[in-house]
Write a structure and sequence with these properties.
The chain is built from 16 helices and 33 strands. By secondary structure, the chain is an alpha+beta fold. It has a domain of about 260 residues: Beta-galactosidase, Chain A, domain 5 (Distorted Sandwich), CATH 2.70.98. The longest helix has 18 residues.
Length: about 850
């Protein structure tokens, strides 16, 4: 486990609390290290000039080439391992901050002499704020266009019930203020002319005053704006508020905190009081008993960051300690079903049952790294439990990240961004990239002496030639969120399912209204990493890749998008290299369609998909979708290149496109449809984006004939045409069973048997003169070369199971602890 020692002798020598200024300089060097930074909460312009954390202050810095940092005395500070947070001093002596005008009242921020802890955190905090600033080139334009009353004519200030709920346009007002205060403060590249500029200060103070004067006074508007059933804030209530509580409690207070910290020394007492009021109002969500989800998971970290800014502004150690305590509360594995936060498998849950590593999880990561780097070496730093949880979280993250070889940008797997799939990359939301500065992972890894975090950084910074960022290989199961990832040498395949423990998707703020099928055994296969980028606006949302669907029978709309699964038999087994996934499905909304589906992840980049026990109560066509992705080059059916357009094939054997090939049974009871061509991408139809365009799409699906007959096919991802055609005739994979009781395959080439037993009482199946039986509904892999048996319980309800292999019985004890339930057990034969 990581501890609070540095990994390098140089940093270890620096890590003395009597020399925090040198430690700060080391932090600054690491924060700006790296060849390809991926920035955090807002898009920013990376710059190479290092800003020493120790040189930042609340007063504006003067233009100078002197990079020497002021020494900070810290002789009284002790480490977190020595002092509990409850013993932190309750007050600090205030000192006068420098001011720009004679009318400004001195603030109460502690200085380095009386409070080295606060000063150190403040300096590091300011460095993070300055690094994240964008739009500095617009400072003069914004000053020129600022009206006499403190507003901008090109900002949409619509508020209340008429305002856009997501990405409230009025936030642009505070985004500009933050940039203006940062330029005034100093420390930004090529902007020395703005440091301590009186006109600039007058401008941002005027903009602040306008918002403060028009702030909402009805506290019910914080959480219940426009909802008269829950509060007393009707649609016509005066003030700047949004129906989305997040805008009122987190979004605007975050900007206010940043601006007020940066401009602190020039704020009047009334302005500072209003800063504190808005921050306190947001931070108070921690005590909201009506909507506890407002302070869980990622929201909890964002609120904690607001609390830190509040503590810095007020010099209140109780607030500061409390804010960091809330960080500790979130930095633990959360095993409860549908609970927000880091799950035991490292995946991240938000909104009570949704996989969200790539959206709320990346916000969580950004705030943890900022807060922990700011608190490094103080009693506010994370404890061992928190460090372990965050290491687990990042170990999981790296499996969910793919690399776009065309753009050189790292992205999250689409199954990890939830409703944000409704944004194209141009909108700079979760689909645009990681939106995380990876060098912070390295900095925190060194601070914590965490080899795990350093390995993640080194892996994701590694040069690769395929979508497989980091070069990871193997099979990873995330049982807490019904999610599976297989990574081969030159591809990444992800599988998203849902059960009675999880949700399928969500539509919030008009985003993702058609996403009902996004967890219906959804399979994404990345080769170059651009396969699914910027195509959702042109998708046929009844043809989600990997899904089996009664086409058009489920209404796709925002109100009906989010549902909990009806089945418990959803999960996977893995020995780390190969495995099998299983999903029993009944449409939770219509109850019209049900099926059983298994996917076997075998050696030599081989995947077998089986569908059985299909039952449909509608007249809709039942389709199993192979893929719906960006069109990329030639399409070959049975080894022959076909033209673009829509074509149907019966009695087909193979399909290849975009370095993924499919092999079908000769007697397959289905018709293959392949289409390729340009489609309009109207992003407004699926969310709030206004981007329009066209996309070349490739779509392939199988239409089931007789539903009483099962279907199976083999996929070979990451293969060129020649290799695929060779594999299609030489690879020896036997279908042992595919019915309502068992799905099983035997990989002859690698002597591996894998099976899913669907029935609660188990079942029995024979292969190669061997008989395998199970006493319960489990998934298993038998490796006859390694002589191992790997078993998991997809229902997460069994305590044990008996497996019989060729007359020999093995009693397998299954995990029941909430932290490990659903994981795989490996037993020697």
């Amino acid at each position: 486990m990581a501890n609070r020692q540095f990994c390098s002798p140089k940093l270890a020598a620096l890590f003395t609390l009597s020399n925090l200024s040198l430690l700060n300089a080391a932090f600054a060097t690491n924060l700006h290290h790296g060849r390809n930074p991926h920035w955090g909460r807002r898009a920013v312009n990376a710059y190479s000039t290092s800003i020493s954390l120790a040189s930042a202050s609340t007063a504006p810095s003067q233009p100078s080439t002197d990079a020497n940092a002021t020494s900070i005395s810290s002789s009284t500070v002790t480490t977190a391992s020595d002092v509990a947070r409850t013993s932190i001093p309750t007050s600090f002596t205030s000192t006068t901050a420098s001011t720009l005008s004679s009318t400004a009242t001195p603030t109460t921020l502690p200085n380095a002499t009386t409070s080295s802890i606060f000063d150190t955190i403040l300096n590091r905090r300011i460095d993070f704020l300055l690094r994240d600033v964008s739009g500095v080139a617009n400072v003069q334009t914004w000053l020129d266009t600022l009206t006499a009353n403190g507003t901008w004519p090109d900002v949409d200030y619509t508020s209340g019930c008429d305002a856009q709920k997501a990405n409230w346009p009025a936030q642009e007002h505070w985004e500009r203020i933050v940039t203006l205060t940062a330029a005034w403060h100093g420390g930004l590249p090529s902007s020395d002319q703005w440091v301590a500029d009186q006109d600039l200060a007058s401008g941002f103070l005027s903009a602040m005053d306008w918002w403060f004067a028009n702030d909402f006074n009805n506290t019910d508007c914080l959480d219940f704006g426009g909802n008269v059933k829950k509060g007393d804030c009707a649609c016509g209530t005066p003030g700047l508020w949004n129906q989305n509580w997040y805008s009122n409690a987190i979004l605007i207070p975050t900007y206010v905190g940043e601006a007020c910290v940066l401009a602190n020394s020039t704020l009047t007492s009334s302005q500072l009081s209003k800063c504190e009021e808005i921050l306190s109002r947001g931070y108070g969500e921690f005590f909201n008993t009506v909507s506890p989800g407002h302070s869980s998971g990622s929201n909890g970290l964002l609120l904690a960051a607001i609390g830190v800014d509040l503590g810095l502004l007020t010099g209140n150690t109780t607030t500061m300690a409390e804010a960091f305590n809330h960080v500790d509360i979130q930095l633990v594995p959360v095993p409860d079903i549908k609970a927000d936060g880091i799950k035991p498998d490292g995946s991240f849950g938000q909104h009570l049952g949704l996989l969200y590593n790539g959206n709320y999880g990346k916000d969580f990561a950004n705030d943890v790294m900022a807060l922990e780097i700011e608190a490094g070496g103080s009693e506010f730093a994370a404890n061992d439990t928190g460090m372990q949880a965050f290491e687990s979280f990042w170990d999981a993250n790296q499996w969910m990240i793919v690399y776009n070889t065309a753009t050189g940008v790292l992205h999250w797997d689409l199954s990890c961004v939830g409703r944000m799939i409704s944004f194209p990359t141009d909108d700079n939301q979760a689909t645009a990239g990681l939106k995380i500065n990876l060098t912070e992972v390295l900095t925190l890894g060194e601070l914590w002496n965490s080899q795990a975090l350093q390995d993640v950084y080194n892996g994701l910074e590694k040069e690769v030639s395929s979508a497989n960022a980091g070069g990871l290989q193997g099979l990873r199961v995330f049982q807490s969120n019904d999610y599976v990832v297989q990574r081969g040498k030159n591809y990444v395949t992800t599988l998203k399912m849902y059960s009675d423990r999880t949700l399928n998707t969500e539509c919030t703020n008009a985003q993702n209204p058609y996403g009902f099928h996004l967890s219906d055994f959804t399979i994404y296969t990345y080769i170059n990493g651009d396969e699914y980028e910027d195509i959702a606006g042109a998708w046929d949302w009844n043809l989600i890749p990997g899904s089996t669907v009664d086409y058009g029978n489920t209404p796709l709309n925002c109100d009906d998008a989010k549902v909990t699964g009806t089945e418990s038999m959803v999960g996977a087994v893995t020995n780390g290299k190969i495995g099998a996934a299983a999903m029993r499905y009944t449409n939770p909304l219509t109850l019209d369609l049900s099926w059983k589906k298994a996917m076997f992840f075998l050696s030599d980049d081989t995947q077998v998909v089986m569908v059985s026990n299909i039952s449909s109560q509608s007249n809709a066509s039942v389709l199993s979708v192979l893929d719906q992705r960006r069109y990329s080059g030639e399409i070959h059916v049975d080894g022959n290149m076909i033209d673009v357009g829509v074509q149907n094939f019966s009695a087909v054997s193979t399909l290849w496109h975009g370095h993924t090939g499919y092999v079908f049974d000769n007697d397959m009871n289905a018709t293959l449809t392949v289409s390729a061509g340009e489609r309009d991408a109207n992003w407004t139809n699926i969310g709030i984006s206004t981007v329009q365009g066209t996309v070349d799409l490739f779509t392939a699906y199988l239409e089931h004939g007789n539903l009483s007959r099962s279907l199976q096919y083999i996929a070979y991802p990451g293969t060129d045409l020649k290799t695929f055609l060779f594999k299609s005739v030489t690879r020896s994979i036997l279908t042992i069973a595919n019915d309502d009781q068992v799905a099983a395959v035997f990989d002859v080439d690698h002597a591996v048997f894998a099976a899913v037993f669907w029935d609660a009482t188990g079942g029995s199946v024979s292969y190669a003169d061997q008989t395998v039986s199970a006493s319960g509904n489990v998934a298993l892999v038998v490796d006859l070369r390694a002589w191992t048996l790997t078993v998991s319980d997809p229902t997460q309800s069994l305590s044990s199971v008996n497996i019989v292999l060729d007359s020999k019985q093995y009693h397998v004890t299954l995990p029941t602890d909430p932290l490990t339930v659903g994981t795989s057990v490996i037993q020697r034969l």
